[in-house]
Write a structure and sequence with these properties.
Elements lengths: L14 E2 L21 H25 L5 H19 L1 H4 L4 H24 L5 H7 L2 H12 L7 H17 L11 H24 L4 E2 H22 L3 H4 L6 H26 L4 H8 L2 H13 L5 H28 L1
Antiparallel strand pairs: 1-2
Length: about 325
C-alpha cells in the first residue's frame, strides 16, 4: 500500500529542513518526546502496517465491483474530508511552492495507486505486497543515476537481492519464470514509487516546507483525478449505489479512513516519539501482513520458491533502510 507522502515521519510541527518520502512518506527531523508514549506510537504504526497489508486483499474484493477511478475517488474523498477537517487552519497557509509540489506528487501518487489497484486484480495479494516493497531498494539507483549520489556496495547488493526475490516470486512451480501481468504492473508502480521517494527528498531537502500542506494538496488531487475518471465512465457506483454490496462500501471507507487518513496522522504523531528509522522498520512489516491476509482471506498459495523470494525482498528492504540510516547518522 502506498501512503500519501512517501516513507516518512514528519514532526507534528510539520515544517523542517530535511525530508525524505516512501509510500509517499517524508522523513523529517524534529523534536521528539521520549517516554512512556513511545509504545503507543509503535502500536499505532503496527496497526498502519496491518491495514496496509490487508489492503491488497481488500482491493481484490473491491475490484469486482468498482472501477479503478471509482475506488480512488471514493477512498480519497473519505480521506481528504477527515484531514481537511483536522487541518482546516493549514489550508490558507499553503504556499505556491507547496501547492506545486503537492500537484507533482499527487500526479505521481495517482499513477502509483492506479497501477497498484489494477495490478492486484491480476496477481495474488501476497505477490503485490512483496513486489511494491521493491520501491524502497530502487531509491539508491535513482540517487546514483539522477542525483549523482554514491552508496556503498552493500546498498547496491540489496538492490540485486531484491530483484533476485522478484525472479523467485515469478517461479510458482520452482522451474519456469512466469511473471503474471499483475506482477509486472505492480513492479511498474514500485518503480514510480521509488522515483517519488527520491524526488521528494531531492526537491524538499534544505527547504522550509510543510508536509501537511503538501499532502493535503496531494490527496485532494488524487480525489479530483479519480472523480474525473469515474465521471467519464458515468460513475455507476453513485448512479446505482444499491448494486454495490455493503461490504465493498465498508472496505472502501476502511481504506480511506484507516489506510489513508489514520495512517498519515499516526505517522505524524509517531515522529515526535521515535526515530524515522524505527518508523520505517515497523512499516516494513507490511508485506508479511499482505501474505497473511492473502492466505487467510483470498486462499493464496505460496510455493517454497515464492516464500524465499518474498523473504529476500523483505530482508533487502530492512537491511537497505538500516544501512541508509547509518549513513545519514555518519553524515549528520
Amino acid at each position: 500500500m502506498t501512503s500519501p507522502t512517501p516513507d516518512w515521519s514528519p514532526d507534528m510541527n510539520d515544517r523542517a529542513p530535511d525530508a525524505t518520502i516512501a509510500a509517499p512518506t517524508v522523513v523529517m527531523n524534529g523534536s521528539r518526546s521520549p517516554g512512556n508514549r513511545a509504545p503507543l506510537a509503535d502500536a499505532g504504526l503496527m496497526l498502519v502496517s496491518i491495514v496496509w497489508g490487508s489492503s491488497y486483499a481488500a482491493m481484490q474484493v473491491i475490484g469486482r465491483y468498482l472501477t479503478v477511478s471509482e475506488f480512488l475517488a471514493l477512498r480519497f474523498l473519505f480521506a481528504i474530508a477527515i484531514l481537511a477537517a483536522v487541518y482546516h487552519h493549514a489550508i490558507a497557509s499553503i504556499t505556491r511552492r507547496e501547492a506545486a509540489l503537492g500537484l507533482v506528487f499527487g500526479t505521481l501518487l495517482f499513477s502509483i495507486l492506479a497501477l497498484e489497484t489494477l495490478g492486484v486484480r491480476y496477481t495474488s495479494a501476497t505477490n503485490a505486497g512483496f513486489l511494491i516493497t521493491v520501491s524502497v531498494v530502487v531509491v539508491p539507483v535513482f540517487e546514483r543515476v539522477i542525483g549523482r549520489i554514491r552508496h556503498g556496495a552493500a546498498v547496491y547488493g540489496c538492490v540485486l537481492i531484491a530483484f533476485a526475490g522478484c525472479v523467485l516470486l515469478g517461479l510458482p512451480d520452482g522451474a519456469h519464470l512466469t511473471l503474471a501481468t499483475g506482477d509486472i504492473i505492480i513492479l511498474g508502480a514500485a518503480m514510480i514509487r521509488g522515483f517519488q521517494i527520491f524526488l521528494f527528498g531531492h526537491s524538499t531537502s534544505g527547504r522550509h516546507l510543510s508536509v501537511v500542506n503538501i499532502t493535503l494538496v496531494e490527496l485532494a488531487l488524487v480525489a479530483v483525478l479519480g472523480t474525473i475518471g469515474a465521471a467519464a465512465g458515468g460513475f455507476p457506483a453513485l448512479a446505482r449505489p444499491g448494486d454495490i454490496p455493503g461490504e465493498v462500501w465498508l472496505l472502501t471507507a476502511y481504506l480511506g479512513v484507516l489506510g489513508t487518513a489514520y495512517a498519515f496522522l499516526v505517522q505524524l504523531y509517531a515522529a515526535r516519539l521515535t526515530s524515522p528509522t524505527r518508523v520505517a522498520l515497523i512499516l516494513s512489516t507490511e508485506p508479511a501482513f499482505a501474505a497473511l491476509f492473502g492466505w487467510a482471506a483470498m486462499d493464496n498459495r505460496i510455493t517454497p520458491s515464492q516464500a524465499l523470494g518474498g523473504l529476500l525482498i523483505f530482508l533487502a528492504a530492512i537491511v537497505g533502510r538500516t544501512l541508509e540510516a547509518r549513513r545519514e547518522t555518519a553524515d549528520g
